[in-house]
Amino acid sequence: MAxxxxxxxxxxxxxxxxxEGSEGExxxxxxxxxxxxxLITLDPAFGNTGACRSAITYIDGDKxxxxxxxxxxxxxxxxxxxxxxxxxxIFGELPQRDQLRRFSxxxxxxxxxxxxxxxHFQGFPVNAPPMAMLSAMIGTLACFHTNLLHVEDxxxxxxxxxxxxxxxxxxxxxxxxxxxxxxxxxxxPKLRYVANFLHMMFSMPYDQYxxxxxxxxxxxxxxxxxxxHEQNCSTSTVRVVGSSQANLFASASAGVSALWGPxxxxxxxxxxxxxxxxxxxxLTPQQVIAKAKDKNDPFRLMGxxxxxxxxxxxxxxxxxxxxxxxxxxxGVKDPLLDIAMKLEELALKDSYFVERKLYPNVxxxxxxxMKAIGIPVNMFTVMFAIGRMPGxxxxxxxxxxxxxSRIARPRQIYTGPKLRDYLPMDKRx
Length: 429
Ligand code: CMC
Hints:
The chain is mainly alpha-helical. It has helices spanning 33-37, 73-79, 82-91, 97-109, 115-122, 130-144, 154-179, 193-202, 213-226, 233-243, 248-259, 267-281, 285-293, 314-330, 335-348, 351-355, 363-373, 380-401, and strands at 4-9, 12-20, 26-28, 57-60, 65-68, 71-72. The protein is 52% helix and 7% strand. The radius of gyration is 23 Å and the shape is globular. The strands form two sheets. It has a three-stranded antiparallel β-sheet. A three-stranded antiparallel β-sheet has the order 4-5-6. Carboxymethyl coenzyme *A is lined by residues 232, 263-265, 267, 292, 300-307, 356, 358, 361-363.
């Protein structure tokens, strides 16, 4: 395979190096293009742009492969815990026993929020969207941990990561309690990560929520499946913010904001709302598919399609199986699951979806499981954010450790007016 690509422009011929990744992915290195030719590349939405080299997550969208640090997502979903996976993503290897114990202890001691911090929740109106609160509160954490704003060494990074991963779960639960007018429930140091979250979500001061191990397992798996997905919209946001040397709290808070949108993490809410509308609105799955295909209708089948996967999203496969198990365990008969399965069946044999390679993505089944567990719909994207936090931190750290990294600063092709004069008000019409 040639080691360079040749670009011809006018009478100029430029050799551009070819970069090869560890799985044979190829890219043209254009870092010197502008200096040599005056040209930039134009790639709106970055569909063809590699913004970094990364050793964290590997996706083969055509084959439906997802691996964290080389390990298949299926193996992690079956055997790992969210905290072990978080360590793997951030530090590159599965933790040794003493590393995992130390990290887990750090998470436990950092689960609580400063008492002054809690007052901030009261400033939000009841019914405030939990994603708005989450983003604001993660930024606010920076005010309470000013000693962690400069990551000087690996120990500080580990401490900061532990605090954010632990506290994001407490903030998420408190956001829900605040938006529901319920009292805050303090974290319980005897409980593991996911069980502690369920406790803070659902216990009452007079009634301890009993965590079912199967539910804990399912939620743990959902978090693992969401933990990283290479250079997606929110992770790229975290990297862009971090590239200005903004601290991890500020960068993670920006990641939450990017995740909120319905084309990204917000899709898990949109899927549930869409399934509810179909259920209550009398539309048949066949009519919904027809609507999604109609080019005069902006409607999209939420939970379908992906920028990278042109095959089954491997996370959707795992979640579909888990949805069956969780619903059976809880004895829930949810008509939304039947509608989802029918939509999937119809879409997978419809030429519109087949030709465009539109398959169910991670958001298609996750909401059904979370709904069965009792997590309210407006918290679904917050759950995604808790899950994605290790991926954001891993990417922030990777960029931080790369001493060649520079501030992210894309260019543009200007299409506005050419030079013209300022007009006083009475000369404008
Ligand atoms: N329903 C109907 N048509 C679709 C859908 C869909 N869900 N997704 C894509 N298409 C069509 C689209 O209209 C276009 O058709 P044409 O070529 O005739 O113009 C073609 O498929 C390619 O779509 P695109 O918008 O160019 O693809 P994209 O890579 O820019 O967008 C996407 C990817 C995920 C935003 C999009 O598939 C979508 O809007 N899906 C629904 C929202 C969703 O489920 N998002 C969650 C993504 S996975 C989790 C995450 O990233 O957070």
